[in-house]
Amino acid sequence: MRESSTVPEDVKQRLNWLLIFVVICFSVLVISLWYLQMIKGEEFKERAVENCIRSLVEDAPRGRIYDRQEELLVTNRPAVVVSIIPAEVDDLEKLSERLSRIIGISPEEIALTVKNYRENPFKPVKILDDCKTNKIVEIEERKDELKGVVLEVKPRRDYLYHDFAAHSLGYVGEIDKEELQRFGNPKFQGGDIIGKAGLEKYYDDILRGEKGGKEVEVDALGQEVATLLYQKPIPGEDLVLTIDRDLQLYGENLLFDKKGSIVVSNPNNGEILALVNRPSFSPNLFANGISSSDWQRLSSDADYP
Questions:
Q1: For burial by CB atoms within 10 Å, which of 17, 21, 100, 144 has the most?
Q2: Among 112, 136, 138, residue whose Cα is nearest residue 125
Q3: E-assigned strands of 130-271?
Q4: How do 149-159 and 171-174 pair as beta strands?
Q5: DSSP designation for 123
Q6: Is the pLDDT of residue 182 over 70?
Q7: What is an example of a GO molecular function annotated in this UniProt entry (predicted)?
C-alpha cells in the first residue's frame, strides 16, 4: 500500500502567504473599482462632458462715435482671430510647427504664448489678430491637422479718418496685467479691449458694452457640431461729439505739414467744434496691437506725436 503524501510545513506556510497576498490584491482591485465608479464617477463624467463642450466668449461691439451732425467717425469691423484652446491640444510642439508654416509666427513664440497662459485651459488663447483671408482658407483646409486651433470673429476698432482728431478720440488696446489688478473687476479678463487714451478711455464704461458667449458641442477633432447655449452680447452705447467733422478736417489740412494746435469753440455755449493737434498719429495702429517697429517710431519721434 502507498503511503499518503503530506505537504511539508514550510510549503504550506508559503501557500498560505500567497493566498493572503492574492486576497489582498483582489480586495484592493475591488475597492479601487468601487471608488472609481461610485466616488469619482460623477467627476469623470463631468470631465468627459467638458471635453466635448466648448465655452466661447463673444465680445460686444464698442459703441460708435459720431460728430455733431451724426457723421460717423469711429466704428467697428469684423476681424478673424487665430486662437488655440490648450485643453484640446495633444502635442503643442507639433501643432506649433504646423500652424507656424501657415501664419508666419515662429513655433517657439506660439508654444510660449500657450504655455504662459495661466487661466481657464478651455478658453482660447489668441495667437494672431486680424488674420488674412488666404491664411484663413489654409487653416480651414487643414483643420484636421490643427486640433485645438479655432478661428473667432471679433469686432475691431476702425478709425475712418486715420489721424483725424487722434489726440481727442484716443485709442483702444488690450488690457495689461497692471490694469487687471488695478481695476479688480471680474468682468475684465486678459485679452479684453479697453479704452487707453482720450475719449475712448474717458467714456470706456459706456462704449464697452457687455460680453456674451456660447457653449458649443464639438467632435473628436474639436469641430463644432451643435450650439447648446447662446447669450447675445450687448453693444456699447454710441457717442455723439460736439466736434464738427468738416471744420475739424479743415483745421487738420491747415496744419498738415506744420506743428501746432487749433481750437474752435462756440462762443454762445463753449462747445468745442474743432480740436486739432499736429503732429498726429493714427489710432488704427493701436487697434489690433501696435507693432514694436511702429511703437519705436512713434516713441522716438522728436516731434512727440
A1: 100
A2: 112
A3: 149-159, 171-174, 193-197, 212-218, 224-231, 239-240, 260-265
A4: unpaired
A5: S
A6: yes
A7: penicillin binding
The pLDDT tens digits of the residues spanning 71-103 come to 999 999 999 999 999 988 999 999 999 999 999
Output the pTM of the full model: 0.74
**Ordered alpha helix ranges (H), 189-291:** 198-202, 204-208, 245-254, 284-287
- The answer to whether 256 and 234 have CB atoms below 8 angstroms apart is no
Of the chain, the percentage scoring pLDDT greater than 70 comes to 82
Which of these ranges, 4-8, 103-107, 138-142, 272-276, has the smallest mean pLDDT? 4-8
Where helices occur in 53-145 by DSSP H, the ranges are 92-103, 107-115, 133-141
Helices (H) and strands (E) in the chain, counts: 12, 12
Partners of 74 in beta bridges? 65, 159
Comparison of pLDDT for 287 and 4, the residue scoring more? 287
Beta bridge partners of 81: 152
Cα dihedral across residues 238, 243, 245, 249: positive or negative: negative
- Residue located via cell numbers 447655449: 229
Here the cell at position 83 is 486662437
What is the set of domains in the chain, with CATH numbers?
51-299 (3.90.1310.10)
Residues in the chain: 305
Question: When comparing pLDDT for 142 and 22, which is higher?
Answer: 142
